[in-house]
Amino acid sequence: MIRRCGRFKQNWNRRKKRLNSLLKRPNNPLSPKIHRQIRNGALTTPVLFVLLLLGSAGCQAEAPAGNPQIVTARLVTLLQDPSPDVRRTAALSLGKIGHSAATTALVEALSDPDLQVREYSAWALGQIGEDVNDEAAVRLAGALSDEHPSVKQAVALALGKIGPRPSVIAILTQALAVGENGSRRAAVDALAQLEARSTYPALREALSDQDPAVRQGAVAALGELGDRRILPDFRERLLFDTGPGVRTEAAYRLGKLGDHHDLQALEEAAHDDASPGVRVWVEWAKAGIGPAPTGGADDTEE
Fold first, then answer.
1. By residue range, what is the domain housing residue 94?
2. Is 61 helix (H, G, I), strand (E, B) or coil?
3. CATH classification at residue 239
4. Which of 70, 104, 127 is a domain's end point?
């Protein structure tokens, strides 16, 4: 509950000074983005009202201001505010606090009509991390179908932070197989962060995706798995893929995972690849692997 405080007599500049004092408190609930906006004078009146409501200026809460559950409860109600600015600020602040009590409200906000509210809500769920329950994680994964790329990317990053869940991996692998371009890109980014070995077959299939960004993401995700069975596929991508970004990623991953069995492909790419950027990473990979052994060394690839 918030104590009634009558009319605000202070002018906005004085309130901003009080908000600035909040920035100096340890563990304050405001996001770094809000910090910058306060200092730059870029906050709108509705957003300042949110901060006042939280007890950072003017009125003070009866309960201890440092209790994250109490602050979370106040912010959750503001996710329903008519003002998009207020809803955005509430979502950002909930992410800064990272309390699991906000999970349900943030999942509902993934359907907000405002683009930034959806994006910030996805980010906030990622900040809650492993405390997000399975049902909420599934609904978050479903937000990969959002029409806006920035929301898709925020969802992918959040999924990586909440950890691998079988139900979420199933949604991601399906999106990687049949989703539209933006959803496939976001799905492969999320899978790269999750590093779940069960995703190996789906990621290997994605190496032949029509979108070079998805192919590059699949190379990166497979590289993160560290399974050396994929090295022949990396060599094929390096030598024959039409996307320079894919070839660059393949060269980098060969340098990280490969050995002298990969040197021939790297030598061919160093001589034949038309992209200077690819050749730079090919040389880096060759230097990392080192020269091929001489003498009776075992030449059998793992």
1. 10-127
2. strand
3. 1.25.10.10
4. 127
219 Cβ contact list (under 8 Å, min separation 6): 207, 234, 237, 246, 249, 250, 253
pLDDT tens-digit map of 6-31:
443 344 455 555 555 655 555 554 55
Q: Alpha-carbon distance 220 to 103, whole Å?
A: 30
Task: Report pTM.
Answer: 0.72
Number of domains making up the chain: 2
Residue 139 lies in a domain: no
Tens-place pLDDT, residues 230-260 = 999 999 999 999 999 999 999 999 999 999 9
- Tell me whether residue 141 is in a domain: no
Cα–Cα distance between 247 and 277 in angstroms, integer? Answer: 9
In contact, 278 and 252? CB cutoff 8 Å: no
Domain final position from 107, 127, 147: 127
Distance CA 198, CA 168 (A): 12
**Residues 260, 182: Cα–Cα separation, whole Å:** 37
pLDDT at 53 over 80: no
